[in-house]
Amino acid sequence: MSCFIDEIKLKGYLVQLNIKNPELSNYLFNELNLTTYWGKEKTDHVESPTITDLNIWRITENGKEFYSISVHDYFKKFFSGIDLSAIKVALNELYFNVFDHANANGNAFSFIRYDKDDEKILVAICDFGEGIARTLRKKYTSFKNDSIALENCIKVGISAQTQEYNRGFGLDNVASTLKKGDMMRIVSNQALLRIFDDKSNIKIFNLDFDFNGTLIYFEVLIENFEEEEMFDDFSFNDE
Amino acid sequence: MIFHSMTNNKIMKTIDLKSLLAQKSYPEAGNFIFNDIKDSIINQDKIILDMRDVLSVPTMFLNTSFGAIIEEFGTEKLKECIGFKNITKSQVERIQKYLIDFNQVIKNNLNN
């Protein structure tokens, strides 16, 4: 919804949300502080008063590394002793992807929450850029449709190589952290990819509409993170 | 911060990755490490990466550091000249997976 509002505002239209449900209204306007994001000046992030919400963040070039640290530190306060680095790695990979490939003109947001009932961390990252599928099809002409492109995007070595340092390991790095009970969805252009549990369970769907951009959503169970374990020294020769 | 020491007639250079990442982006820090590892391979020295308080090693760092070394010198040379201090189990696993995946991609590219 943030991307949609941003797109509409960018075109000069007035956005007015008429919410009849008081609970939803309170959530959007008081907890998420939605209107503050598009006030007199655009705001990248507003602190939320609730414990479980990290609130919406506009993905910015300068803030992309800092925000992944904030998210990691936020969860670390509640889950000490657990190695949550996979979340930070995933955010690093996905935020860099937005800037390396999306051409989203600043229209990119992430929203991260902790679901207390299911004990899951939920991450959504969306941009209204070119879309992963379309970007890959420019480079790999053998990908005849968006579904094939999306199916390949999580394989190692598949990259649009927009930047020299892109080598096609990022999305695999995110998808490979998924374990039993986790889930990931990627919606881009005219395709949807869904992973249940881990990378061995992938389904691809054709969409009958064109989503101009990329939405990546994943859920990870807290119980799937391992306890922190530190080695004083490590060398490959010791293996 | 960078420290030098001597072990078995080899110069051992220790790089504090956290302070490097405070000054450089992941790809830039990777390039910096690449140059140090390259010098170490040529001079037959050793690089120790101190990972204390480093929260993650994403692939845009690994690509410009370890990946670039593998392309130029091969995996064995990389393994010989690099070591780690204060590294977490998950970081070790992630780096090991990366090395396997990178070699697989090289093989695939050669076959195509």
Task: Please give a quick description of this structure.
The complex is a heterodimer of chains A (239) and B (112). Chain A starts with a helix and ends with a strand.
Considering the chains and any ligands shown, give keywords for the structure.
heterodimer; A: 239 residues; alpha+beta; Heat Shock Protein 90; five-stranded antiparallel β-sheet; 8 helices; 6 strands; 33% helix; globular; B: 112 residues; alpha/beta; four-stranded mixed β-sheet; 5 helices
Notes on the protein architecture:
The complex is a heterodimer of chains A (239) and B (112). Chain A has 239 residues and is of the alpha+beta class. Chain A has one domain: Heat Shock Protein 90, CATH 3.30.565. Helix content of chain A is 33%, strand content 24%. Chain A contains eight helices and six strands; from the N terminus they run H-H-H-E-H-H-E-E-H-H-H-E-E-E. Chain A has helices at 2-10, 22-31, 34-37, 64-78, 85-102, 132-139, 146-153, 170-175, and strands at 57-58, 108-115, 120-127, 183-196, 202-221, 230-235. A five-stranded antiparallel β-sheet of chain A has the order 1-2-3-5-4. In chain A, helix 4 packs antiparallel against helix 5 and helix 6 crosses helix 7 (146-153). The longest helix of chain A is centred in the middle third of the chain and has 18 residues, at 85-102. Chain A is globular. The model of chain A has no long low-confidence stretch (mean pLDDT 89). Chain B has 112 residues and is an alpha/beta fold. Chain B has one domain. Chain B contains five helices and four strands, in the order ββααβααβα. Chain B has helices at residues 17-23, 26-43, 59-73, 75-81, 89-111, and strands at residues 2-7, 10-16, 46-50, 82-88. In chain B, helix 3 packs across helix 5 (89-111). Chain B is globular and about 45 Å long. The chains are: A alpha+beta (239), B alpha/beta (112). The interface between A and B is large, with 35 and 37 residues.
